[in-house]
Design brief:
single chain, mainly alpha, 79% helix
Amino acid sequence: MAMLMAIGISAQEQNRPQHEQKFSPEKFDAELQNFITKEAHLTPQEAAAFFPVYKEMQQKQRSLYNRQRQLAKNKPDGEEACRKAIEEADNIDLELKRIQQEYHKRFFEMLPASKVYDILKAEERFHRRMMMNWGNNRKPQQHGQQHGQQRKHEQRNQK
């Protein structure tokens, strides 16, 4: 889920016009690492040991997230194809959870469980904040603009 949110984020640079903003995976990763390091109170040594393993986990997950996205693009034709698509999606979910569990065990070997817990919570908060910022920075779509104008019109009529 975290990687899906990361892929969807497209506006990181506040000072540039919306149409010029580009998603930078490097900047996103650096901000995520800084946030996790601060929130989980990782020492430089802990961060140096943790983040290469964390990136390895993300790489394994990324290919599965890409498969999920491909499955979700188009509804399959026919009952059997739909059944197979659902089963494949279920298998991907299980594989993602297996990878997560495997890497959490590896994290426990290098860090106290309380820091692993803090890392996981920090990662969730970071992605939630990024999605909120992304939503706030997006230009309203035509429908949203019309809805907003309609609301203003209704508010004026109520006065």
